[in-house]
Design brief:
By secondary structure, this protein is an alpha/beta fold. Strands 1, 2, 3, 4, 11, 12 and 13 form a 7-stranded mixed sheet that branches. Helix 1 runs antiparallel to helix 8, helix 2 runs antiparallel to helix 8 and helix 6 runs antiparallel to helix 7. The radius of gyration is 26 Å and the shape is elongated. The N terminus is likely disordered.
């Protein structure tokens, strides 16, 4: 078999189209009731996948996508129409890391419970599972009470006058036989939840005998390889969602008067162009809104304009898809969960309950089981605190005191997340380093991103101030340990760096 080249489209929330299948022979079609007989003329399928234990974004930057409450709102809004709606999860959703440290267990189990409760409230029809769902064991996962589809099995879901076959595919080689099994069992539209990457799925998307109409690749290779969604235009379209709960996939099914195979609707013309243009304008506004030092009034104006564009795009993406009359068809759309979109109230309460519980649980665990960081080895530098730096570098302190670095701990306190293990590491100095912070109940004197967060422990430098025993010019590699695509998606080193430089801090010190 000659593989086609990979065509990956990274288009935030653009209406998608692909290849059209040849219709089934007339003899294979069966007449079914239509709208005149009271049957729905289509259905809506909504998919999540690769959520990686995220209830919502951390909130470190402006306008961060995601949130299970926003996903629940999308499902709720879709159900207000006349078409049946099925919500399906592809797996790898309950946890974000394959192994947990003992201190993480209370928080991560509580988070998985909140995610499961949210999915139940969203009316989850079925979900596949991956290794990130079994981090606390199969018994824990099954105890959450979610409707699950075992690897290598098929489930038929009623969607009005048609049957949607959902297949949990653990390996690429099983795509063809399992999709054929779903078709044999009576599925009209077959979705393969493939536990692998988009690239792995694309390699077999054109193989003979493949009976799937859509392949959803539910697993990403690394934590940050799901930063953008992907679409491969093969004979069978392959889709990968943006990870960590930042968007949903919407599939609109249109039913013809007779049963038969589904063909993908071609591009949505003017709508597709409008969405692409809105995406470009939104990306530019987002970058401007997140510029360090932007004037508050200007930021407010740009934020209002951004929210206006989000609302316009949301309207375009959630309008019923136009289906060709007399045919069985489907269309694909990515639904980004933008920060200005509302959340579903019941699920919001589930998330708030988690936030209340987890801080108390983590603090209690630290007091009972926490261990101090190991002391620095003989001859190694120790943390001395920002106050010690001020004795020789007083001219740099005003610049630091007015920066977000100095207020990093306060931003967590404002949101009630100062005891969330996902957050605290980038908001204190010396987290999990020798002589640093290893216990949530012992952060006094280390709150905020101090001098030693970037320049390293300062005890040796305090005793003998030379450039040789301190990190004089920390580079981009250090910054992106916290300013990564997840926490700081608009970070640009060259743009941000000048904002933390001043007299005595990257620039000539004022003469005394």
């Amino acid at each position: 078999m000659v593989r086609r080249p990979l065509t990956v489209l990274v288009l935030a929330a653009v209406v998608l189209a692909g290849c059209k299948r040849a219709p089934e022979p007339a003899a294979a079609s069966t007449a079914v009731p239509d709208a005149a007989a009271g049957q729905a003329t289509g259905a809506i399928l909504l998919f999540s996948a690769d959520t990686r234990g995220y209830l919502g974004p951390c909130g470190c930057s402006e306008n961060m996508r995601g949130g299970i409450d926003r996903a629940a709102f999308e499902v709720q809004e879709a159900r207000k129409g006349t078409l049946p709606v099925l919500y399906i999860d592809g797996g790898d959703s309950l946890f974000g890391e394959p192994t947990l440290k003992p201190a993480q267990v209370p928080q991560e189990e509580r988070k998985a419970q909140a995610l499961a409760e949210s999915m139940k409230r969203m009316g989850l029809a079925v979900r596949a599972t991956g290794e990130l769902d079994d981090v606390r064991g199969v018994t824990f996962r099954q105890g959450l009470g979610l409707p699950e589809l075992a690897p290598g099995t098929v489930k038929l879901l009623t969607a009005g006058a048609r049957q949607v076959g959902v297949v949990a595919v653990p390996e690429a080689a099983q795509l063809a036989p399992l999709s054929a099994q779903a078709r044999k069992e009576g599925a009209d539209f077959v979705v393969a939840l493939f536990h692998g990457t988009v690239e792995q799925a694309q390699a077999v998307a054109d193989q003979p005998g493949l009976e799937a109409d859509l392949i959803l690749a539910t697993h990403t290779a690394t934590e940050f390889s799901g930063e953008e969604h992907k679409l491969v235009r093969s004979a069978v379209p392959v889709v990968g969602l943006q990870s960590k709960g930042r968007e949903l996939l919407r599939v609109d099914l249109g039913y013809g008067p007779q049963k038969g195979r589904f063909s993908q609707v071609k591009g949505q013309g003017q709508t597709e162009g409008e969405v692409a243009a809105l995406d470009q304008r939104m990306a530019l506004l987002n970058k401007e809104i997140n510029l360090p030092g932007i004037a508050p009034e200007l930021q407010k104006l740009k934020q209002a304009k951004l929210e206006e564009l989000v609302a316009r795009k949301q309207k375009l993406l959630t309008e019923p898809a136009a289906a060709p009359a007399g045919t069985n068809s489907f269309s694909l759309r990515f639904l980004p969960l933008e920060s200005s979109l509302p959340g579903q109230p019941e699920v919001q309460e589930v998330v708030k309950a988690y936030d209340r519980d987890v801080g108390q649980m983590n603090l209690a665990w630290a007091k009972e089981h926490g261990e101090d960081c190991p002391a620095p080895k003989k001859g190694e530098a120790a943390f001395v605190g920002t106050a010690a730096c001020q004795e020789c570098h007083a001219e740099t302190m005003p610049l630091w005191e007015h920066s977000k670095h100095s207020h990093a701990w306060a931003t967590l306190e404002e949101k009630g997340k100062q005891y969330h293990l996902n957050c605290v590491g980038c908001h204190v100095t010396g987290y999990e380093k020798p002589g640093g912070v290893c216990r949530l109940d012992k952060v006094a004197g280390r709150q905020g991103v101090g001098c030693e967060s970037c320049h390293g422990p300062g005890s040796l430098h305090a005793e003998d101030p030379t450039p040789k025993n301190i990190v004089r010019n920390p580079g981009r590699e250090l910054c992106v340990t916290c300013h990564n695509p997840e926490n700081s998606p608009h970070f640009d080193y060259a743009t941000y760096l000048p904002k933390i430089l001043g007299p005595g801090h990257g620039q000539p010190a004022a003469k005394k």
